[in-house]
Amino acid sequence: MTVSSNDLLTDLQARGLIAQMTSEDELKSHLASGSRTLYCGFDPTADSLHLGHLVPLLVLKRFQDAGHNPIALVGGATGLIGDPSFKAAERQLNTSDVVAGWAEKIRGQVSQFVKFDDVSNPARVVNNLDWAGNMNVLDFLRDIGKHFSVNAMINKESVQQRLNREGAGISFTEFSYALLQGMDFAELNREYDCTIQIGGSDQWGNIVGGIDLSRRQNKSQAFGMTVPLVTKSDGTKFGKTESGAVWLDPKKTSQYAFYQFWMNTADADVYKFLKYFTFLGMEEIDAIEQADKDSTGKPQAQSILAREATRLVHGEDGLAAAERITQALFSGEADQLSEQDLEQIQLDGLPSSSLAEANLAETPLTSLLAEAGLAASGKQVKDALQRNSVFVNGEAKSMDDNMSAADMFSSEKGYYGKFFLVKLGKKKHHLFTL
Questions:
Q1: Whole-angstrom Cα distance, residue 170 to residue 148?
Q2: Which end of the chain has fewer CB atoms surrounding its CB within 10 Å, N or C?
Q3: Cα(134)–Cα(346) distance, rounded to whole angstroms?
Q4: What CA–CA distance (Å, rounded) separates 15 from 35?
Q5: φ and ψ at residue 357, rounded to 5 degrees
Q6: How deeply is 96 buried, as exposed, middle or buried, from its count of CB atoms within 10 A (0-12, 13-18, 19+)?
Q7: Rounded distance between C-alpha atoms, residue 109 and residue 91, angstroms
Q8: Listing from the earlier edge strand, what are the strands of the sheet with 69-74?
Q9: What residues are annotated to the active site?
Q10: From start to end of 114-265, where are the E strands?
């Protein structure tokens, strides 16, 4: 669903996607009076973005769909420093080569969500190393540092938390991060007439600093808006699983695992996430929620969310792959899969690994399954076996069975002599290939 520029802020507010904004009435008038340029920054702190980045990425897309010009800023410079915002301790600094490599990967990822061609309001991807990397320290202190009050910077909540945490403190390196982010906004304001910055709610202080610097240096009025940091109703961290973060790169989190993350969304969160992570209209989302309330069967919201979010991030092919695996694993008919089917779901992203038959005799089954990621430890595997919750090619295994991995994964017991679909509990699956 595409929203007009006049209705954009109203739609974002209805979705719960605005945490804070500066000068609300003036910002509404600013957006309504023409096509505006806005930006959001993404620091390369890893070789992929994760689910926490998806809300601001999709907000950039929502602005572009409404007729505005998005800039995705990759923090090749700020990624070398580390943002202290509400972090318990200093970040581990990475080398310039590592950060540059990560920045290039992230540039490619953000390019999936905004359009560069065949539109009247094309997006840009920029790297702040292009201007920060050429500035000498004296120019930085005179031209940027002069406009920032240490008093105000120290009083920021994120800095106070570090100062008040015993033994933590904050280095001058991370303390200077706000100046670099402020410089980004002023530079984009000068170069591209960028007048709006969006970011997570933990970036509010940095965004306000950039607005002030743009006013001082460029005599320009600028605006800021933050999106909420996504939380789950049970208090656990959003975008995390037992095996770690949910990444946007399919090499780090497969399309199947990504799809299943959304399928496992709690009922208390799913309608909120439909508003955040899909482009379904509010009336349609409300209708889905009402239909689920009226139904005595399984809610449909999770499957709709999984399809929409997977399609957005991984495209139609990625969605088809995730659904093929899901159908294969949860239909109860895995023994009907052809050899080509098993090879395909392995390519589609089902967690899998190879087994060397010669080494199986020396490998405890509990260690093998834990190392494959089916459980956090061998003890958890042992507990699952005691509950008859481990299945190999559809057959339940227990502590009473022969515990030899060599016996369990022998070629005569595998599908087509080599494939073993292992399920632990209701949701963990792994494909072993002999």
A1: 17
A2: N
A3: 47
A4: 22
A5: -55, -35
A6: middle
A7: 23
A8: 20-21, 223-227, 194-200, 37-42, 69-74, 124-127
A9: 45, 50, 53, 87, 91, 181, 202, 237, 240-241
A10: 124-127, 194-200, 223-227, 240-241, 244-245
Q: Residue 239 has which token pair?
A: 């975008």
For residue 279, give both structure tokens. Answer: 């482009």
**CB-based contact 391:422 (threshold 8 Å):** yes
Q: What is the pLDDT along the chain (434 residues), one digit of tens a residue?
A: 666 767 899 999 999 999 999 989 999 999 999 999 999 999 888 889 999 999 999 999 999 999 999 999 998 888 888 776 656 565 667 788 888 888 888 888 988 899 998 899 999 999 999 999 888 999 999 999 899 888 888 888 777 777 777 666 788 888 888 899 999 999 999 999 999 999 999 899 899 999 999 999 999 999 999 999 998 888 887 887 766 789 999 888 888 889 999 999 999 999 999 999 999 999 999 999 999 999 888 899 999 999 999 999 999 989 988 888 888 887 777 777 788 878 878 877 788 888 877 677 777 788 888 888 888 888 888 888 888 888 888 888 876 655 567 777 888 888 888 888 888 888 888 888 98
- Torsion, Cα 297 300 301 304, to 10 degrees, reads 170
- The backbone region for 377, taken as left when phi is positive above 0, alpha when psi lies in -120 to 50, beta otherwise, is beta
